[in-house]
Design goal:
- By secondary structure, this protein is an alpha/beta fold.
- It folds into 5 domains: 103 residues, no CATH class; 167 residues, Rossmann fold (3-Layer(aba) Sandwich), CATH 3.40.50; 100 residues, Immunoglobulins (Immunoglobulin-like), CATH 2.60.40; 234 residues, Rossmann fold (3-Layer(aba) Sandwich); 72 residues, Immunoglobulin-like (Sandwich).
- It contains 15 helices and 39 strands.
- An 8-stranded mixed β-sheet has the order 16-15-17-18-26-25-24-21. A 7-stranded antiparallel β-sheet has the order 27-28-31-30-29-32-33, with no helix packed on it.
- The longest helix is centred in the last third of the chain and has 27 residues.
- The radius of gyration is 47 Å and the shape is elongated.
Length: 721
Amino acid sequence: MMERLTHHIGFAPLVPAWLLGALGLVALAVCGLGLLRGSRVAALFRLGAAAVVLFWLAGPQRLRESWRLLPQTALLLVDQSPSMTLGQRSAIARQAADILAHSQTPGLTIRTVSVQDNGHDGTRLFEALDQAAADIPPALFAGAMMITDGQNADTPTSIPERLNPSDGAQGHTTLPLHILLAAKGEERDRRLRILQAPPYALAGQDATLRVQVDDAGPGTQPGTAAELTIRTSDGTQHTVPVRTGAEQSITVPVTRPGQMLVSLAVSPLEGEVSGLNNQTVLSMTGIRDRLRVLLISGTPNQGERVWRRLLKADPAVDLIHFTILRPPEKDDGTPLSDLALIAFPVRELFQDKINQFDLIILDGFENRHILPRTYLENIAGFVRKGGGLLLTAGPEFIGPGSLQNTPVGDILPAHVAPEGSMMEQRFRPTLTEAGRRHPVTASLPGAPPAGHAPDTALNMPGMWGPWYRALRPDSTHGEVLMNGPEGAPLLVLDHVDLGRVALLLSDQIWLWSRGEGGGGPQAELLRRVSHWLMKEPELEEEQLVASLADGTLTVTRHSLAASAENTVTVVSPSGKNEVLTLRPTGPDGTPQASMPATEDGIWQVTDGVRTAYCAPGQNNAAEFSQLRATAGNLADMARQTGGGVFWLGESGSVHVPAIRSGAHTPPHGADWMAFGQGGGHVVTGRAAAPLLPAWLAMVVALALILAGWWQESRRRMGTTL
């Protein structure tokens, strides 16, 4: 830049300042004394001489400086958030940034800053502006430009400090902020908002959602008719009419327990910029309403309290518990009022209301003419129709009243011979190979490691505590998850038609709750078994799991069978089918496969028997809530700072405003934007010349002294005459 010259007066005292001041006081005193004696004119001449001498001693100089203005820095913030990928915005932004970065404006340097997605709360341009301007001296900061779509999440209500410096370095307090929008003009957009959605809903009932559809942009108005399409992961689909600009309640049927995905999509708006925010996917969990459990205990035993404590602690369980204190044929004269508060409602429980229960638990139950055969057939029918039965077996299971000799025995997964099947010895339960994979027993804490015989596990510290009694079955069917002494089956699960049965061939699981030998996961095991019997989806032994993250769909099969290569069919949200081959992976050989998945909506994966659903998660909901290019969010801030708002047009014909720089230039025009010239400069040279030479000061001082002496002489001569 051109150098500039300035001239001004400076001082370089020849004596210390205190001495200069003292001499000045003496001169004033002498002048005052002269005035008192009446020689006023002479005193003033002498005072003038003293002033000339003092002025010369002050060292007056005529200074000449040459200096050069430093170039100002303007920030160019380029929005590179995900919303800028829509349409031609990113291409427009690149072209405009290229032109501005290579523009040659005297006295102005442009620094480009890319503003990336922060991943959680939308575009934050002013946060980036504050950080980028932190290392620019205020005197050299000229202002900022933003290339964006106008969707910004941190626009302040007042001018930011960086654009409103307190030192007024440029002669005014506000620096311009120019907004360059990567579009032809204001755009139209329709968006779907979920105002309220329950995370849980009762299975078999409808869940209520609160939604609102909003239109924005030129020509839009509230009350416009639209259609909302609702799809669920269980295959149901229906459409409801909605009006824009108003809240609306919709219902979604929850058909089964477990996770359910709900896809909502609103019909598009004509000419809208994008349909990304016209749809969303919700996840809800279907839960049962008060699971009803019937617990029938045989003669009072140690495990009875364990069952009651476990089931009563679950707020979702409605427990009905009866204990058989005395069989009907036994009559010792004890009044019934001393044995029970109410009579055992056999007919009501096992005929009238049996189908209202989700699970029946028979704990050490011995049928000594308590339940007629018809009621036992009802229990077996309850299981076949979809109910759950859990039976814990002790010595009563091989006695005369054993349930395995009744219609209930037809649905049990094991048979125990009446002779020689009772094993009374110390042992630790162990997991079978199937038990290590089955969700009911997999990852139970404290389980003995794989590959150890029961006798070896018995002596290993830190494992499950010991039991002392179990039954050895002579035949089993279903899945054996735990073994007892000498490798005999201990816990057996089985599917019976639509229902399920679990048989525990020992009545001593209560020892774990007492901490015997270190105890064990008694509560967790019984909870899992109970919920498996009630068909908890997460505890299914055969599962097909689909997940979607970062544009990749991953399908995993969990199975008790040996891992093998198999195929599944993937159905995209648009209805396109693709076959995917699962291959054993990882140390356990779990079949798995992945594929790219970029479509929004619910993806379906099926192997012909099981079906899994998944949907992409939206990492930055704030970024995609508003998608249209608009000046509405930033125009007011540009106006407050004196900046301009410019539409860049289309890719290939981008119209970038010219840049001007100057101290008195207006901040912007129709097709140009300007930045003021600050006061930052560097001195390149300095010269000093005495303003009052010594000889001149001496001549003037002597002349004044002589004038004072002459005036004093005349006054005396006049006085003599």
